Write a sequence for this structure.
């Protein structure tokens, strides 16, 4: 290379057939140091509009960046595509998030890979994500599903930043998350529950038994699929729910019907699953379509358009909580039996609890009246409690009231 009149600027003539203005084309380079390291950077060819003067200006800019501690262009890591980081994240989630990882793979492949996959991370803006949110909503996805997809985008960006694969900001910060209202409102009457179990028993004993566990013990589908022989405690009548959705282990109490069913299904090896996938013998991933087909055959969802009012498998768990509330079970007890992380999740059942608050206020008023009448001796607390309505006397709509046995307390 040949020096120019500018310090640190060099050039060389093309060694091939590259020509410019009837002469061999010339390529300009700039040389500089940073922390003891020599840099030789190509500026460009004369045919591309580069000159020794322009190369000198570029070199001056590099020296300015070094002086101010800025990262040089050649030191910057290549910005990955969203698809590259998406796949890396899914590998991590598979090893660290178990069931949630499978759900995230489905959301990524079904809703994120096509619109975002080919974009570089720094090319995805809050506006792009707002458009994605609108697109998913127009495709008919529930607000909760749309929110899950956006949360997945946030997690992928966060991991890319934490892993030093991406140095930008997370664009999800500028996006307003949907506020889903997808709480289940529909629950079964005792007649409907009996009818459903009876019909399921005729077509699939496995689906019948899974429905029985959810209806009598409040188990989620995933908790039923994970149940193993060593989780069953016949001596104390308990089912141990290990590694549930909210990560907090709990116990479910077996009714006699559940005890008999589980005893018939008890695997020889305590480490084996109570319910196995009939195709590969491993853990099941979803409730059989037999359930939805039976619900359809019974007409439970005829004319129902609101998702919250439709009968699905999760309706059975919601029915368990509703029956407990209707018999007067304390809201904190319902919370523990359902494995909710906060009472806010259990508050949906509070309107079904018999009018205990009113009765408590009336008892307080009676206490005040006694004092006004000169009777200072307070009524015993057990007498106050005895004046409150019992669970069995709680009133409800026809077919929705239940006894202690039916509520599986």
């Amino acid at each position: 290379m040949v020096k120019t009149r500018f310090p640190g600027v060099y050039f060389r003539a093309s060694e091939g057939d590259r020509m410019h203005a009837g002469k061999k084309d010339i390529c300009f380079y700039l040389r500089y140091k940073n922390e003891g390291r020599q840099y030789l950077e190509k500026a460009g060819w004369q045919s591309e509009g580069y000159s020794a003067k322009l190369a000198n200006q570029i070199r001056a800019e590099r020296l300015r960046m070094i002086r101010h501690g800025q990262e040089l262009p050649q030191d910057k890591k290549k910005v990955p595509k969203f698809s590259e980081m998406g796949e890396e994240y899914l590998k991590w989630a598979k090893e660290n998030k178990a069931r949630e990882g499978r759900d995230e793979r489905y959301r990524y492949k079904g809703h994120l890979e096509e619109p975002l996959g080919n974009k570089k991370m720094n090319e995805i803006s809050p506006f792009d994500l707002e458009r994605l949110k609108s697109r998913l909503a127009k495709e008919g996805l529930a607000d909760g599903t749309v929110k899950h997809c956006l949360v997945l985008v946030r997690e992928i960006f966060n991991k890319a930043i934490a892993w030093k694969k991406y140095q930008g900001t997370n664009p999800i910060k500028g996006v307003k998350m949907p506020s889903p209202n997808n709480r289940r409102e529909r629950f079964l009457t005792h007649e409907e529950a009996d009818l459903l179990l009876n019909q399921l028993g005729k077509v699939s004993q496995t689906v019948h038994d899974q429905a029985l566990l959810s209806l009598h013990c409040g188990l989620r589908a995933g908790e039923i699929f994970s149940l193993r022989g060593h989780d069953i405690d016949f001596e104390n009548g308990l089912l141990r729910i290990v590694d549930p959705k909210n990560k907090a282990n709990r116990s479910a109490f077996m009714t006699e019907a559940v005890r008999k069913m589980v005893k018939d299904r008890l695997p020889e090896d305590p480490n084996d699953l109570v319910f196995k996938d009939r195709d590969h013998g491993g853990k099941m991933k979803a409730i059989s379509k037999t359930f939805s087909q039976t619900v359809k055959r019974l007409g439970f969802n005829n004319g129902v358009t609101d998702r919250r009012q439709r009968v699905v498998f999760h309706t059975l768990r919601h029915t368990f909580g509703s029956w407990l509330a209707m018999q007067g079970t304390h809201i904190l007890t319902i919370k523990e039996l359902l494995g909710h992380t906060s009472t806010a999740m259990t508050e949906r059942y509070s309107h079904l609890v018999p009018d205990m608050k009113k009765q408590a206020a009336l008892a307080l008023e009676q206490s005040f009246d006694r004092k006004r009448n000169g009777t200072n001796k307070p009524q015993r607390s057990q007498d106050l409690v005895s004046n409150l309505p019992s669970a069995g006397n709680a009133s409800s709509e026809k077919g929705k009231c239940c006894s202690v046995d039916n509520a599986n307390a």
